[in-house]
Each structure stands twice: as structure tokens, then as C-alpha cells.
Design brief:
Layout lengths: L1 E6 L5 E8 L2 E7 L5 E9 L2 E3 L7 E5 L3 H6 L9 E4 L5 E2 L5 E3 L9 E2 L2 E7 L8 H4 L3 E8 L2 E2 H4 L3 H4 L6 E9 L10 E6 L2 E7 L7 H8 L10 E3 L21 E6 L3 E9 L9
Parallel strand pairs: 6-17, 8-14, 9-19
Antiparallel strand pairs: 1-2, 1-5, 1-14, 2-3, 3-4, 6-7, 10-13, 11-12, 11-17, 12-14, 15-16, 15-18, 18-19
Length: about 270
């Protein structure tokens, strides 16, 4: 099932399934519990991220070629960081270039497969890990490189730095997440291309690893790493600029599209 979260024409937040031609069939219930279709299709006024995550874990250097292009050793265990939930935006929402990076923006794109946990997971074995996955969506792990050199969390944690969408496809439709093609296009030009088969650590291994002595709550999102081609690895680098369009296309999920905008000037408070 392909699930969307959206604003309807009355301004209400809704869940729907099987979006088509700007409409979706309404769903009733809990995303992490029982959902049932109401048999009624309504117009989508605005797509939202498919969920509001409880936590966001990111995995760095999970594609061998990307690690080598970064000039780093292939990791022996997953490289883990976290992104604030305030980074999440939906399809077509603008990625905002932060004011604090205005002198040397170096804002990079990283198209990724995102995993959504559906059942509480703690100390799960890899063989059982996928049973805890609700589904999958596309993500863009946007990164301000000059900030990330000092603090990965800071460089990846600015508002709007985690687009998710356009749909959440349930795990029953993707029994093997290690066979999905992934591409990123900047202003229509393909800059990244890979397949989740090339991950160093599989989805099952990542869920198992992150759950060791750590509770993964329903609604936890795991960003599984990016294939080669991010801006920092290109010669010369081609970072995001005001007016750009960045698209992440994930097989089975669709295209996650976001414009890039410069931050508005701060309004000074009047005493």
C-alpha cells in the first residue's frame, strides 16, 4: 500500500492511500496500528512528509564508492548520527539555505532510502529485523559541509534538511529492500545513481545494530546512506544554490522533489 499524508481542501490533515491525479482514498485509523480505507477519494491540496518521525537516525558512508570518494576508509561498523525532527519537510517544500552558512554555503544533497519503524524494536537479530519495519520512503539527507566538518549533527541539523516522501510504501510491497534503484537529479541532470544492493550494511543489519540496547520506537526513521555523486565528491563541487531544484527518485516510491531557496533576511525586533 502507498500511503500519503496530506492537507485536504478544507485544511484538514489526512492519511490516504493510492494517490493518483491529485487525489487519494481516505484512510481511517492509526499509521502504526489499524488502517482501513473509507472508499472515498478526496483532492490533495498539499502533500506532507508521510509521517512526523519520533527520531531520525542517519547512517554515514554506507556505500563503498561514496566512502572512497570522500577519502575515508570503508567502515567496519555503521557510522551513526542523528538529525533533529525539526529538519523534516515534505515534497515540494523548499530546502532553505541557512543564513549562518551564507559566506560559504557548501550545502550538499544526499538522496537516500529511508526506513520507517512500525513496531518497537530492541535487541532484535538481523533475521527478525525487517518484521519491525512499517515501510519505506525517499529522503534527502541535506548537509552543510563546512558545519559538518566540525559537528555532523550541526551540519545536518538545520531546518528543512530532511525532505521525506512523496509516499510511504508498506514493507509487504517491498519484501527485499536491497534491490531498489536510487537516483538524484539537480536541475534535471542526474548527479547520483546507485542501488541499495550496494549498501555495506543492509536494512536488516542497520535495524538490528541500532536496536542494540536502544529502543527504536514506532515512527523512528533510519536514513540508510547515500550512493556516490554528492556535491562534495565532484570536481568542482556543485553545491545547492538559490533557485535550484533537487529530485530524489527511489524505485517503487517515486520522486521526492524540492526547490532550494535562500533564507529570508532576519526581521529585527523593534524596541
Amino acid at each position: 500500500m502507498k500511503i500519503v499524508r496530506f492537507i485536504d481542501q478544507q485544511g484538514h490533515e489526512r492519511l490516504g492511500r493510492d494517490p493518483d491525479a491529485g487525489t487519494a482514498e481516505l484512510l481511517e485509523g492509526d499509521l502504526f496500528g489499524d488502517l482501513r480505507g473509507l472508499g472515498e477519494r478526496v483532492a490533495i491540496q498539499r502533500l506532507l512528509a508521510p509521517l512526523s518521525p519520533r527520531n531520525i537516525f542517519g547512517i554515514g558512508l554506507n556505500y563503498r564508492e561514496h566512502a572512497l570518494l570522500m577519502g575515508l576508509q570503508v567502515p567496519e561498523r555503521p557510522v551513526v548520527f542523528m538529525k533533529p525532527t525539526s529538519t523534516v519537510i515534505g515534497p515540494h517544500d523548499p530546502i532553505t539555505l541557512p543564513r549562518v552558512a551564507a559566506q560559504a554555503p557548501e550545502v550538499d544533497y544526499e538522496g537516500e532510502l529511508a526506513v520507517v519503524i512500525g513496531r518497537t524494536a530492541r535487541d532484535v537479530a538481523p533475521a527478525r529485523a525487517l518484521a519491525h519495519v512499517l515501510g519505506y520512503t525517499a529522503a534527502n539527507d541535506v548537509t552543510a559541509r563546512q558545519w559538518a566538518r566540525a559537528s555532523r549533527t550541526r551540519g545536518k541539523g538545520f531546518d528543512s534538511f530532511c525532505p521525506l516522501g512523496p509516499v510511504l510504501i508498506t514493507a509487504d510491497e517491498i519484501p527485499n529492500p536491497q534491490r531498489l534503484s536510487l537516483a538524484t537529479r539537480l536541475n534535471g541532470v542526474r548527479v547520483q545513481h546507485g542501488n541499495t544492493a550496494d549498501m555495506i550494511f543492509s536494512v536488516a543489519e542497520l535495524v538490528s545494530y541500532l536496536s542494540q540496547d536502544t529502543t527504536l520506537l514506532p515512527g523512528t526513521v533510519i536514513l540508510t546512506g547515500t550512493p556516490p555523486g554528492s556535491a562534495v565528491t565532484r570536481t568542482p563541487p556543485v553545491y545547492l544554490s538559490d533557485g535550484d531544484q533537487i529530485d530524489v527518485e527511489l524505485e517503487e516510491v517515486g520522486v521526492l522533489s524540492n526547490p532550494v531557496r535562500a533564507a529570508a533576511e532576519r526581521v529585527q525586533a523593534v524596541a
